[in-house]
# Entry
Amino acid sequence: MELDKAAICLAKLGNPARLAMFRLLVKAGDEGLAVGDIQKELDMPHSTLSHHIAHMITSGLLIQSREGRVLRCRLDYQLTQDLLDYLMKDCCKGLLSEETAAA
Amino acid sequence: MELDKAAICLAKLGNPARLAMFRLLVKAGDEGLAVGDIQKELDMPHSTLSHHIAHMITSGLLIQSREGRVLRCRLDYQLTQDLLDYLMKDCCKGLLSEETAAA
DNA sequence: GCATTATTTCGATAATAGTCGAAATATAAA
DNA sequence: TTTATATTTCGACTATTATCGAAATAATGC
# Structure
């Protein structure tokens, strides 16, 4: 991953609402979560949540697919992985504790 | 690390200039880098760089210490480590590839 | 003290991000 | 074919961030 792309992704995660959403989506795994499910968990106005989701989509970290009336959100795991790789390998090479490396 | 703190740190890294600076500081290690050294590498106006440095300081990721006329910048490795731990363990538990975990 | 070097602070401006109600769109169900 | 549900888009506003020249501060050497 290039630095600029990594910066964009990190900026998207650098907001409490979006980082919380990201955590939920990691936990949700392949199944993902409906927007409504996220809304219930994060308890914010629909329009605000939608705005944050749009942010995540533009970065590519989040993928939406329609299932009837429901829009289901999933992480792009490959991109997420690439971002973590960038941070851990390229960016912080040698900075890792044994513990983190074994996480 | 708490989510809010992680979000603040990620937001600081979520800017190309600051992420580039972060990389330089990782590479520089304990020795750190003078502001002037960073400026030469990143080639931006002093005032702009200073602004970004101030951002990094408020997040706690960057520590400055004066050595004569020179201000030396170092990363707070513990905090950096805590942030990576947060992402890898708390946030992305189970999402790691073997490869990344072994980085 | 005065000039030099290193860096920040100030101040102004432009750009981006965050918030949220109201209206619009998409789909399904009655 | 109307009503209900899920979600987004619009519009307006406020707040934060980014940029950078000019002036200020801090330390050193003459």
User: Anything to note?
Assistant: Residues 15 and 71 of chain B are 22 Å apart (CA to CA).
